[in-house]
Amino acid sequence: MLPDLPREDLLGQLRTMLVIRRFEEALILLQRSYDVGHFHVYIGQETTGVPALALLEPGDVAFSTHRNHGHLLARGADPGRMMAEILGRETGYNQGKGGTLHIASAEHGFPATSASTGGNLPLATGAAFAFRELGSGRVSVALFGDGAVEEGAWHESANIAALRRLPVIFLCENNSLEALGQKANEYPSSTLATPDLTDAAKVFGIPAVAVDGTDPGAVHVAMTEAIRRARAGEGPTFIESRTVRWPGSRPLWPQLATGETELAMAWDRARIPDAHRAWYEVNDGVLRYVRDLLAAGHASAEGVSALDREVRERTDTAVRFGLDSPFPSPETAMRDVFAHE
Amino acid sequence: MWLIRAFEEKVSEMYARGAVRGLIHLGIGQEAVAVGACFALEPDDLVVGGHRSHGHALARGADPERLLAEIAGRASGYCGGKGGSMHIAATDVGFITATGVVGGNVALALGASLTAMSRGGGQVAAVFFGDGAAQTGVFHECLNLASLWRLPLVFVCENNGYAEFTPLSAHTVVAELSAHARTYAMPTRAVDGNDVLAVRDGVRAAAALAREGAGPSFVECITYRLRGHYEGDPAKYRELAELAEWKEKDPVRRYEAVLAERGALGGEDRARIERRARDRVETAASAALAAPFPGPADLMTDVLSRPAGA
Amino acid sequence: MPELRSIDAIRDALRSELARDPRVVLLGEDITVGGPFGATKGLVDEFGEARVRNTPISEAAVMGLAVGAAATGMRPVVEVMFMDFITLAMDQLVNHAAKLRYMTGGQLRVPLTIRVQGGAAASFGAHHSQSLEAWLTHVPGLKVVAPATPADARGLLIAAIRDDDPVIFIEHRALYWTRGPVPDGHDPVPIGRAKIVRRGADVTVISYSRMVGIALEAATRLADEGLDVEVIDLRSLAPLDIDTLIDSARRTRRVVVAHEAVQHGGVGAEIAARIQAEAFGELDAPVLRVGAPFVPVPFSPELERRFVPDADDIAGAVRSTVRRPSAVPAG
User: Fold this and answer.
1) Looking at the domain assignment, is residue C86 inside a domain?
2) What angle, 0 to 180 degrees and rounded to 10, lies between the N-to-C axes of helices B251-261 and B31-39?
């Protein structure tokens, strides 16, 4: 379903989703001619990050993981500076020192990004602690995957957040429902014995919901309530957003398994091939979103195509910006170890 | 239970007069958990304890003299005087080790249960830990892993309501700790931790499940420590009324009453059992205190299985 | 002699020990699909899921489990995917694995092997590139080895698994794909013995892991300048083969220690201190160290390249030891 928002906002979110989608595809394409190194893409999860993070105010913070590109772009980070960071250039958000795994932009409300699974959970809880102590009314969002729930840091963070009714939202993107190599058994994943992921939060009395991560409307509803609770001092909330992992993210190094997204598949079913049919018809939340916008009369095929063209041009610019940016000079390696040097 | 009670009271007395040093955590008031649980286990089962484990070791059959010698830092102690009160190991009676790292012992027990499972002889492992450990991240990881791998591990939680100087309610909103085990689809039971027969039955049922390959379970024993967290802790954070209330539920006296009611404990028996326990402890204490301390050469031994270069 | 890539040599060691000793069990994240680099590929098919166990992302519990299992009769081999994440398991490693034997007065032994992959390469960034061996060599009760060749990788891993004490086996992803000769059979390489890989008369360069190859490169260049460099591959960081090092120092009278880990507080500091304490009178120059600068590992390829010491850095240090002592730079 569509979020209960004005048409303008709905289209704005489509634009952001396309920015993310085309950015990640461009990265995979770039890998063919340039050694980008290893990275993780957000393809297949745009319909979670975009509507959820759109509800945050300036001053609210989010802590992301190794799969952060979509999160930062969702809050307005510049694709050029993101690409520059991924390519290790001095114009990148971390001046080339962080790279794809650690992109941070305080300006966009991403103070720190950890590549250590579960490592950002205590950080997000800590920010919420500060917000509560300072009475700022702001909220902190922990962005993590199903794997992080296996870490002890989850348990300790959730316990403290519940105990002190901290304004933290635990947004868990579970993209392992059908992940390759994991057994199909009664558990959500083969490495967590919890029958339902939300049980891991409910035991602490933290309200927990599971939503279809490809349904931006459902994400919008859940996140709206979570933010309300947090700002009202009612404590943390857990949202499990479920998606099927994009086929291209199954191998260790991302591949364009389903090709560059053909938005026309949203309005012309004849274009859908048999290979990866489930992806195009059901699991690609962006295609679904386009279908829903068209059905609601909020957009036309031509309009969407035009939007996409504009996004792709901007993405090309971003890639060029990244490639053209200089590498940092060696002396900069020694800077910013301490606050006062 | 009397042996443990007498032993712990003796240690307390020795500590007060400086015959024993360091950090001592006594289990006075929690004897029923140690005795009930260990009674339900077999001699070749593997038990791991925590910082408050004198009673657990004794309940497994540890020799009071060697135990007291260890607490007093003597060479004749179970660990040659190198472990001390919080790090007892009495492997000959199946008490594998204890550790002062809250929650850390649970992970060690996980490993012992893996060994038990791989031996295929129906052995199980059991671990004693407190309510404080339930908030540690490693505890959560252990519940998950034990459940996932169906390890033959009995989680025995001694919930005495306090983690060091803090009541459980200040550590977590979760009042019933077995809820954590249920998150991982593990069978749980809560028992009156001061009722030695209830503890025995609970652990026996859990051990039976583990032996038949049904995996881990969680036994939450509600109990109370009648002394401070450590010897020397005046425990001002507790209400006297609460202490008095729990003294009424003293596990040793309660079991005596149960036995008396069944006609199994005559008038003389009770006093005789207590006296025998105290005599045994006295003998152990004298011997322990008369034993020599480890010497300088002992400092460097047993770091590695074989000295480097050998 | 047949040749193997390091990563295949490692797999070969694991396979041979799994086959030889039923008490050996592998534990780690994703190891049933080979792990991130393929080191454990195929082993679960051969030995089954009870011997090659995939674990959740729970470093603390898995390390503790491995310690507990080792203490009760098994011989676990734990893989910590990146050395950086050993930080999550430090309590179990330092407080339990290293100390249980001592604290129990010898009742327990912990025959545990921990494989980690450390070092900076391919711009993996600050959380996937650290060399933390100095922390581990600082803990009594832990053994630490770091092979530089496929033959030593196989032999030392076999030795580690057969060792009755906790051994951390440090792999370097930049070395995984290098080929090298390996002898027939599956014999252990003794832990605690360094190896002189290039005999020389003028200066000794002590290194380990990836730095050995880089030291040899520097030695080749310096040979053209008339300097004859002896290169020692430590192989074992704890215990340290101090006798071999002192003997070499006495012969060449000049020593440089080179490692990829941050220079400050690194393994080189201990070695330099020991050599100076025992052979001061026989040295013609202070012992110099080459190591990474005191910063987190930066991501950008160019910055990372500057972070990791190279042959020029080592050659420069060697030349410094040959100049008059008054002209020796700090380090």
Assistant:
1) yes
2) 60
Task: Give residues 158 to 177 of C whose Cβ lies within 8 Å of B.
Answer: 163-165
Q: Are residues C203 and C295 in the same domain?
A: yes
- The burial class, CB within 10 Å (0-12 / 13-18 / 19+), for A185 is exposed
Q: Quick one: C15 and C137 in the same domain?
A: yes
C173 touches chain A (CB under 8 A): no
**Chain A residues near residue B138 by CB distance under 8 angstroms:** 152
Q: Report pTM.
A: 0.87
Going from N- to C-terminal start, the domains of chain B cover: 2-169+195-287
Q: What CATH code would you report for B2-169+195-287?
A: 3.40.50.970
The reply to whether C126 and C221 lie within a common domain is no
Q: How many C-beta neighbours within 10 Å does residue B292 have?
A: 10
How is domain A7-322 classified at the architecture level of CATH?
A: 3-Layer(aba) Sandwich (3.40)
Determine the Cα angle at C166 with ends C162 and C167, to 5°: 75
Which 128-147 residues of chain C touch chain B by CB within 8 A?
A: 140-141, 143
Q: Residue C326 has what pLDDT?
A: 46
Q: Is B172 left (phi over 0), alpha (psi -120 to 50) or beta?
A: beta
**What is the rounded radius of gyration, in angstroms, for the C-alpha atoms of chain B?**
19
Give tens-digit pLDDT for A235-285: 999 999 999 899 998 777 899 999 999 999 999 999 999 999 999 999 999
For the segment C121-177, what is each residue's pLDDT rounded down to a tens digit?
A: 988 888 889 999 999 999 999 999 999 999 999 999 999 999 999 999 999 999 999
Cα separation of C35 and C40, whole Å?
6
The CA distance from C161 to C248, in Å, is 30
pLDDT in tens, C237-287: 999 999 999 999 999 999 999 999 999 999 999 999 999 999 999 999 999
Q: Are B292 and B74 in contact (CB under 8 A)?
A: yes
**Burial (CB count within 10 angstroms: exposed 0-12, middle 13-18, buried 19+), residue C146:** buried
> Per DSSP, what are the bridge partners of residue C179?
C5
C236 and chain A in contact, CB less than 8 A = no
Measured between beta carbons, the chain B residues lying within 8 angstroms of C108 are 89, 91, 96-97
Who contacts B52 (Cβ-Cβ below 8 Å, separation ≥6)? B25, B26, B27, B30, B130, B158, B225
Amino acid at A303: G
Q: What is the ipTM of this complex?
A: 0.89
Q: Does residue C331 sit within a domain?
A: no
- Domain hosting C259: range is 195-323
A9-24 residue pLDDT tens: 999 999 999 999 999 9
